[in-house]
Design brief:
heterodimer; A: 1076 residues; Cytochrome C3; six-stranded mixed β-sheet; 41 helices; B: 313 residues; two-stranded antiparallel ribbon; 10 helices; 10 strands; 12% strand
């Protein structure tokens, strides 16, 4: 038996194994450093679903469990007086102390706000099991340090060497310290055991907080007890393992006699634990509500089989207990079992609901964990080399003698120090009591701050009497749904523009679909439920209200007369105004009215409010357009990509909707302006490249997009023909960007290089403002362009050069429905019947160019000497060539069958030089059910063509024709630039270009009357309705534009005669003509 | 020997006294507002999945704007959970919200902190960084948080999220009922204000419960006959009305007992008045003293006499 007093181990600290461990530690802490620099997410695989990983499960939970050897041995030796195990005490305490120190250290890696680690000392939260653990571990670390002090003081009091004199001076102090420690140590020994029991069990309590997440294999209210029992179980095996391993590594003999003795306790502790563990499972297994997963069952089986049952049998056998190898093996099993148990409880068994992913520790986590454990081994080696820990092997037991000299007998201060120690413990107890009482009282100091929060006093209030008393004077066709109630809450959208009439037509005049209650008395807010009220009267309401009621006498309430703020008012469940609107809308929109797909997303009805960009735009002083765009794109990342797909950017996207494929170089021989490649500057008047774009055509560079062209709200931004006014401060403009309005679109679309209405369609300057009644949408109800030209990802629905630019079709029916005339008396159904063959525009746009004249002809073969206006608006500045032109207002359209597809002619089309060339004729035909009669403005031109190839040619205008006025030379220059052949001789051909009419929609009262197209006798009401007088009939079917003769030529369209007389395209008239 | 027995007796008595007492005390709800206070009712049969609540939440809490715009429905292809950048998310589940809405294709379920009446996270928090405000909102104080993420473990709804990529001062992020800490104002949720269909109703929890049951009574064919959150884990302040069983809609089936109750009764049951530790200390102290005496080591008797006397008041 070796001598029982401890001594330093006389071996060098450094060895090959040490270097390996230092390497492992260094690698691990390098990962640790990364964690401190870049955050947990970079190094670990932790997630919101798996917030704890192996740093908690192994470094902390296992670390604490495996340090149980310390208190177990201390209890065994010092409390239960088994002094023959004394040799094991110091190494066990050292292991525990290092274990706890490293647990505390490891916590720094795992917790996010490590600099707040001291908080629990002051911010008590006595309800928290984690607080319990944290405080106990802290206190126990203190106790362990006290328990470790004798070893360190021993060493200090025996220091030899150069500083011997100094130590000699310090020796009395050290001796006193040794004495004091010795005096108070018993107090703390017991406290250490108690603290250990507390936090070992509290570590189990931790996971009781998530009963629904922890697998039932491990979740049990007994978990704290099981944790404590398993700590008891693992304590001695850890001591055994540590002792045998240390002996092997330090080349000593293991203390087998003592260890074998110690191992006798182990079957008892294991047995006790197993009894509880298995008993608990047996009781609970019937109540399992969730089935554990396969991996959990395997892990559980290994834990219980290899970690508990097998070592139980091994430890029970004396022969095994006395063999160092078998003992080592059995101890490893127990330790492995407990480690697996902790991993199971914290990781494997932790299965949050609805989470499919699993947690797998990352390389960094493993490295740090390895580093923690290797640093424990390193420190252990360091301590046993530097301090008297392990039992001495020499006969030299001076240190121990010295220690014994410092016995406490006769020490006068013993009582005082003992009392102080007891007071310290008492203080801890009182603190502990206070924490628990505080937690139980529900007035935890740490959370008192939250109590100072005042309950929110909502500012929403009901409307003033005046505001909701205002009943509608009469029926309003159009509402902008805006209200203080709606704006009171989170309000990210502009008011909805609500077409009352359109929605009326959807419900076919049934007001009750939305106005579901009505009151007979103006003061009655709640009123009667419409259907219930009718049911009382035994009436089944069907169809339009006006079928039975005189609507002018009916009293229909406004929505906001009942619906105010949410849950406000006499009825708790009464829906607020916002909810009322949305619920009424969304139900129908989701169901879809009459087969149409109605929008259900927010931005189909609302425009979002645009945030104040002065806070967001960051450009240098006087930025270039490209700098502005780059800044826009820095936030609106995907917009560049979107823009590149649009017609505003691409110059060649008409192919899908026309028969001919065109490229940008070929496209615009269309009407007469000849603005193709050789004259790029004029293309850029509309296409949104930044200035200078024409000199470097680059359709991939997003920063060359000119955002301000559309998004300027100041009205100062100008794209003059092809450039910018460089005097503008783009920063000011960029800071005020917003949603384009009519003015923005007007910049290009109302005013093209040729002047007002020189662009393809009749869009007049008046539309920029709101004055005038030129167009019912833009004038009367002030709609924005994009109300109809629905825009999604910068794809703007509409036509380019008469063909659709993208698949987002806009039609009248998308708002007005398929039976828009249905509720205006019985004429309505006759009008609705037209929609199978006649477009809405045909009747509702009776003339084009109602204010500004439209250029109907330009004859380039007849140049004028003087450049200047000929009745149109001012031409492009600096344009040096002007041909003979013809401008007219109030142009009666030409009507053609249209199916939406045009036959586009470009530079590759061979021209019959003697005939009129149709540039973009609509391809609809009489027999095609998808073709409708649509109004067109036909614009004629006489423009140059190559005599030899019979194709249109493009002259160079700027620096060309306008300067030298030589057609041949200009054509040669132009065609050369395009890379197309030119024979050298040209002639002039007559061309015809079709512009469909969409704007200048007149109100219903000004739309075409029946007799504007049809013979009166064909549409005479008396043909069928016998009760109508001739006068009434004449009034009803009268002509609105009697001065226009022969507006509709039915024969040209393919009818044999007036369809009202003969037959429609696909159905015959039910009644014989002329029967009044 | 007689001395040991006395020690043992005193300690066991203390244990008995402490274990018998605490249950009642522990069951008192420790949240400030109790079952009263504020609440929010989600009627999933009214939700149209417009994600305006997400947008409002994002703005109110100044969270980073997501790459996918809020109007995009692409996000519904996966089931999402609240993150540190989105305190509330709406998930879509196939099939209509209720049997009487056959034309609807999906049920939308908003997910956010449930603001439990007896919150596990508040009970779990080591420093009290999470706490229940006077009106019942569960609020967070990053100043004292140590970042241990025990609240993430504790939450039965998988709500709190953590800023894993923040190296120095990561925060636990979750819905705080739009409590404005700097202004000192309590719950005032932006999502409820933004909801276009008023599928979210904010108000007193008690009245919301009445309202919810009234709706179920009025339209029994539309709603499941239970309000999710009324009893789950001791009751939550966010309440759900469903037209389909909640288990089909991604909400966990939870017991009625609040998780903190068991853990706190263990904590305060065993450790109240430090009874068990003191008893254990006394017991072990007596054992040690006896063994020391047996070994004949010189130990003044006062050692044993003072200790128990000091600790047992």
């Amino acid at each position: 038996m070796p001598s029982s007093h401890p001594a330093q181990v006389r071996i060098p600290f450094f060895s090959p194994g040490t270097y390996v461990l230092i390497g492992v530690t260094a690698i691990g802490f390098a990962f640790g450093l990364v964690r401190f620099l870049l955050g947990l997410g970079t190094v670990t695989n932790l997630s919101d679903d798996y917030p704890w990983g192996i740093w908690i499960a192994i470094d902390v939970a296992c670390g604490v469990a495996l340090a149980a050897g310390g208190f177990m041995t201390a209890a065994l030796v010092d409390i239960f007086g088994k002094h023959r195990f004394h040799v094991l005490l110091r190494p066990a305490i050292l292991t525990a102390w290092l274990g706890y120190a490293m647990v505390a250290f490891a916590v720094f890696f795992d917790i996010g706000r490590y600099w707040n680690i001291w908080r629990p000392v002051f911010n008590w939260q006595g309800n928290s099991a984690l607080f319990e653990v944290g405080m106990c571990v802290m206190a126990y670390l203190f106790v362990l340090t006290i328990e470790m002090t004798p070893a360190i003081l021993d060493r200090l009091s025996a220091v030899q060497g150069k500083a011997k004199w100094l130590w000699a001076q310090a020796l009395p102090g050290i001796r006193i310290a040794v004495t004091v420690i010795k005096v108070i140590l018993p107090l703390f020994l017991v406290a250490g055991v108690v603290l250990s029991c507390m936090h070992q069990s509290s570590l189990g309590t931790l996971m009781l907080i998530s009963p629904t997440k922890l697998s039932p294999l491990w979740y049990t209210p007994l978990l704290p007890a099981l944790f404590l029992l398993s700590a008891f179980m693992v304590g001695f095996p850890v001591v055994i393992l540590e002792s045998i391993l240390a002996a092997r590594l330090l080349r000593r003999e293991p203390e087998m006699d003592v260890l074998g003795d110690l191992a006798r306790f182990v079957p008892w502790t294991i047995g006790f634990y197993a009894l509880f563990r298995i008993g608990d499972l047996a009781i609970r297994i019937g109540d399992f509500t969730r089935l554990p997963g396969a991996s959990q069952i395997v892990s559980f089986a290994v834990e219980l089989g290899a970690g508990v049952l097998l070592p139980f049998f091994l430890f029970s056998r004396r022969s095994i207990r006395n063999s160092s190898r078998w003992l080592l093996f059995a101890s490893v099993l127990v330790i492995g079992g407990v480690v697996l148990n902790r991993i199971n409880v914290y990781l494997v068994g932790y299965t949050p609901p609805g989470v499919v992913s699993r947690y797998i520790p990352s390389l960094g986590e493993l490295a740090v964990t390895l580093a923690i454990f290797s640093s424990i081994v390193l420190l252990y080696r360091l301590f046993v080399v530097a301090f008297p820990i392990l039992p001495a092997r020499t006969e030299d037991d001076r240190e121990h003698v010295r220690w014994r000299e410092a016995q406490v007998s006769g020490f006068r201060g013993a009582r005082v120090f003992r009392f102080a120690g007891a007071l310290l413990l008492l203080g801890f107890v009182i603190l502990y009591l206070a924490v628990h009482e505080e937690a139980l009282s529900g007035r935890i100091g740490a959370v008192q701050w939250a109590k100072t929060l005042q309950p929110f006093r909502g500012s929403a209030s009901r409307l003033g009497q005046l505001e909701h008393a205002g009943r509608p004077e009469g029926y309003r066709r159009y509402y902008i749904l805006n209200s203080v109630i709606l704006n009171a809450d989170e309000d990210y959208f502009e008011p909805v523009r609500f077409s009352h009439t359109a929605h009326d037509s959807y419900t076919r005049g049934n007001c009750g679909v939305c106005h579901h209650r009505f009151s007979l008395d103006g003061d009655d807010r709640v009123g009667e439920e419409l259907h219930a009220f009718h049911a009382q009267l035994e009436i089944v309401p069907e169809g339009a209200c006006s079928n039975c009621h005189d609507m002018s006498s009916l009293y229909i309430q406004r929505c906001d007369s009942c619906h105010w703020a949410s849950s406000e008012g006499p009825e708790e469940n009464l829906v607020g105004l916002k909810g009322a609107y949305h619920r009424q809308c969304i139900g129908c929109h989701e169901e879809g009215g009459g087969g149409a797909t109605l929008p259900t997303d927010c931005i189909s009805c609302h425009y979002p409010h645009i945030p104040d960009h002065s806070l967001l735009v960051q450009v240098p002083e006087r930025p270039t357009p490209q700098q502005v765009t780059a800044n826009c794109l820095s936030c609106h990342e995907h917009v560049g990509r979107d823009i590149k797909r649009t017609a505003h950017w691409r110059w060649y996207d008409h192919r899908r909707f026309s028969e001919t494929q065109l490229t940008f170089a070929e496209v615009d021989t269309s009407e007469s302006r000849m603005l193709a490649n050789p004259n790029l500057r004029y293309c850029l008047a509309c296409h949104i490249g930044v200035p200078g774009f024409e000199s470097r055509l680059d359709f991939t560079d997003e920063t060359r997009i000119d955002c301000l062209a559309c998004h300027d709200t100041t009205g100062t931004y100008r794209r003059d023909q092809a450039g910018f006014t460089s005097a503008l401060d783009l920063k000011v403009i960029a800071e005020r960007v917003g949603r384009p309005d009519r003015r923005s679109c007007a910049q290009c679309h109302f005013r093209s290089p040729g002047g007002l209405n020189d662009k393809l369609e009749a869009l007049e300057a008046e539309f920029e403002g709101r004055e005038g009644e030129l167009d019912v949408h833009m004038g009367e109800i002030d709609m924005r362009c994009q109300d109809c030209h629905r825009t999604s990802q910068h794809q703007i629905a509409g036509n380019v050069l008469g063909t659709q630019s993208n698949p987002l079709r806009i039609t009248c029916t998308s708002c007005h429905g398929k039976s828009p005339h249905g509720v205006v008396g019985f004429v309505g159904s006759h009008l609705d019947e037209h929609s199978t063959s006649v477009s809405c525009e045909a009747c509702h746009i009776p003339v084009g160019g109602r204010q500004a004249p439209i250029r109907l002809l330009v004859d380039y073969s007849k140049p004028l000497a003087e450049a200047g206006s000929q009745g149109g608006t001012a031409p492009i500045e600096g344009r040096g060539f002007r041909a003979e032109e013809k401008w007219e207002s109030n142009v009666v359209p030409t009507y053609r069958w249209d199916n939406g597809v045009r036959r586009m002619r470009g530079l590759d089309t061979e021209v019959d030089l003697g005939e009129v060339l149709e540039m973009n004729p609509p391809t609809g035909v009489y027999a095609d059910p998808n073709s409708l009669i649509r109004p067109f403005i036909v614009r004629e031109a006489v423009q140059p063509a190559d005599i030899e190839t019979g194709r249109l040619v493009i002259p160079k205008l700027e620096d060309g024709l306008w300067v030298h006025r030589d057609w041949t030379r200009a054509i040669q220059e132009g065609m050369q630039e395009l890379g197309l052949p030119f024979s050298g001789e040209h002639t002039f051909v007559q061309t015809r270009f079709y512009t469909s009419l969409f704007h200048e929609v007149v109100p219903a009262r000004e739309a075409l009357g029946c007799a504007d197209c049809h013979e009166f006798r064909a549409v005479d009401c008396r043909r069928c309705h016998s009760g109508i007088t001739a006068k009434e009939s004449q009034e009803m079917v009268r002509s609105i534009y009697p001065n226009v003769k022969g507006r509709m030529n039915f024969e040209d369209l393919g009818y044999s005669a007036d369809p009202a007389v003969s037959n429609g395209r696909f159905r015959s008239m039910p009644l014989r003509i002329g029967s009044p | 020997m007689s001395f040991d027995r006395r020690c043992f007796l005193t300690s066991s008595l203390t244990v008995l006294a402490s274990v018998s007492k605490p249950q009642a005390a522990a069951n008192e709800a420790k949240s400030g507002a109790g079952p009263g206070g504020v609440g929010c009712l989600i009627d999933t049969t009214l939700c149209i999945g417009c994600r305006q609540c997400e947008d409002a939440c994002n703005r109110r809490n100044s969270l980073p704007r997501p790459v996918t715009p809020f109007r995009s429905k692409e996000v519904f292809s996966t089931v999402r959970r609240p993150t540190s950048a989105a305190f509330t998310v709406v998930n879509a589940y196939a099939d209509p919200p209720s049997a009487d809405q056959p034309r609807r294709r999906e049920t939308f379920v908003k997910k956010q902190c449930m603001h439990c009446i007896d919150p596990a996270c508040v009970s779990a928090c080591i420093v009290g960084a999470l706490s229940t405000a006077e009106d019942g909102a569960v609020v967070y104080n990053s100043d004292i948080c140590i970042g241990c993420r025990y609240c993430l473990i504790a939450c039965p709804f998988q709500i709190p999220a953590y800023e894993y990529h923040e190296p120095v001062s990561p925060r636990v992020r979750k819905c705080e009922f739009c409590t404005d800490l700097s202004a000192g104002f309590g719950a005032n949720p932006a999502c409820a204000a933004a909801c276009p269909t008023e599928a979210l109703t904010f108000g007193s929890r008690i009245r919301l419960l009445e309202m919810a049951h009234a709706r179920i009574r009025q339209r029994p064919e539309r709603y499941e006959d239970s309000v999710y959150g009324e009893f789950e884990v001791g009751g939550t302040r966010w309440l759900y009305l469903f037209g389909r069983p909640a288990s089909e809609l991604g909400l966990p089936s939870l017991p009625e007992a609040a998780p903190p109750r068991l853990i706190e009764s263990i904590q305060h049951g065993i450790f109240r008045y430090a009874a068990v530790p003191i008893a254990l200390y006394t017991l072990l102290g007596c054992v040690m003293l006896r063994n020391r005496r047996r070994r004949g080591l010189q130990e003044p008797a006062s050692d044993a006499a003072t200790k128990p006397a000091v600790h047992i008041e």
